[in-house]
Amino acid sequence: MKKYLLTPGPTELPPRVLLAMAHPIIHHRAPEFLPVLEQAREGLKWLFKTKNEVLILASSGTGAMEGAVTNFLSKGDKAIAVNSGKFGERWAQICKAYGVDADVINVEWGQAVEPGKIKDELKKQPDTKAVYLQATETSTGVVHPIKEIAKIVHDNSNALVVVDGITGVGVFELPMDEWGIDILLTGSQKALMLPPGLAFIGISDRAWKFAETSNLPKYYFNFSKELKNIVKNQTAYTPAISLITGLGESLKMMKEEGLENVYKRHAMLADATRNGVKAMGLKLYAPKSPSNSLTAVLSPEGIDSGKIISSLEKDFGIRVANGQDQAKGKIFRIAHMGYYDKSDILFALASLEIVLNKLGYRVEPGAGVGAAEKVLV
């Protein structure tokens, strides 16, 4: 049976990227690695829409999140962390681990943060050094209004705007310089169509000034050291050579498609998925502000979402994701970021119709597929 990966990371890998990573290994200090890294550097600036360097880390996205705290703040500094799901929790946990006083804005799962709440917190805490949040909260499928929030933060404070764009960069607009995002990060296994193992972080001039006074401990995730090396087409430590080679190919694919077309494709696939599941009588977990990265769907009453997930994999080879923590068993998450097209969505929806009927939830055959087709024509 063929296997189909529709989880929100890792995502499917294009054959071109796989072939690029299969090339014989080269030494990272050898001259032939210099153009490989240079190509990746320039492509990341293009993707992040920034004039500044985007650092490449051999880690998961969480490594970049940790570095986004340790490289810019000091012990006892005040920060704001938006907690709207499993990954919003992580910002607060990292701050706490390093002695940063994080004021947490708790948001109901499936809901986007109201920008006014951030403005209110900044008034209460005028010495806030950073505001941490997600572009998309991957655990719930909600997207936050980053452009509006960035303006509010800059208009009402000197705090840094720090955005976890792990399931946002390469999916929808997050122009770093234009919107005033001070720190933007992502991971390789999402829209960049690579295996897990790389994290990327863009840093504004404002944020680099914060780095000059940061006193939190740092060694491997020392961004100042990484910056000194990357401008020479090197990394501070041994890089993930094969992944960076694949990165060059994935960025080349995105450039060939055109970034605006990449965004349009993601929006189309997301719209088709949402229309399809709603036509089956299902409800979205984030109905008011759904992300184009993934669609989180509420399982029908009386059916554990784990049964839907296991049936999709057993009968059709499709792997989707369960909910996390309080949403486990209640939702399933279908990803459509990166290397996906119309046929992937239609196959997933057709398979879901069959599985739901098998589990006792009546769906008119073709209802979801038909609704999706109206978007995909």
What would the principal axes of the Cα set say about the shape? globular
Reported by name, the CATH topology of the largest domain is Aspartate Aminotransferase, domain 2
Q: Spatial order of the strands in the main sheet?
A: 2-10-9-8-5-3-4
Helix content: 40-55%
- CA radius of gyration is 21 Å
> Structurally, how many domains make up the residues?
2
The major beta sheet can be summarized as: 7 strands, mixed
Quickly name the level 1 CATH class of the largest domain: Alpha Beta
Secondary structural class: alpha/beta
Order of helices and strands: EHHEHEHEHEEEHEHEEHHHHEEHEEEHH
The DSSP helix count reads 14
Terminus-to-terminus distance: 29 Å
CATH architecture of the largest domain: 3-Layer(aba) Sandwich
- Under CATH, the homologous superfamily of the largest domain reads Type I PLP-dependent aspartate aminotransferase-like (Major domain)
Number of strands: 15
Description:
There is one protein chain. With 377 residues, the chain is α/β, with parallel strands linked by helices. The chain has two domains: 15-256, 3-Layer(aba) Sandwich (Aspartate Aminotransferase, domain 2), CATH 3.40.640.10; 259-376, Aspartate Aminotransferase, domain 1 (Alpha-Beta Complex). It has helices at residues 15-21, 33-48, 61-70, 86-97, 115-124, 146-156, 176-179, 205-211, 223-230, 241-257, 259-279, 305-316, 342-358, 367-376, and strands at residues 4-5, 54-57, 78-83, 101-106, 130-134, 136-137, 142-143, 160-164, 183-187, 199-203, 283-284, 294-298, 318-319, 321-322, 331-335. A seven-stranded mixed sheet has the order 2-10-9-8-5-3-4, with helices on both faces. A four-stranded antiparallel sheet has the order 11-12-15-14. A two-stranded parallel sheet has the order 1-13. Strand 6 and strand 7 form a beta hairpin. Helix 3 (61-70) packs across helix 4, helix 5 runs parallel beside helix 6 and helix 12 crosses helix 13 (342-358). The chain starts with a strand and ends with a helix. The model has no long low-confidence stretch (mean pLDDT 98).
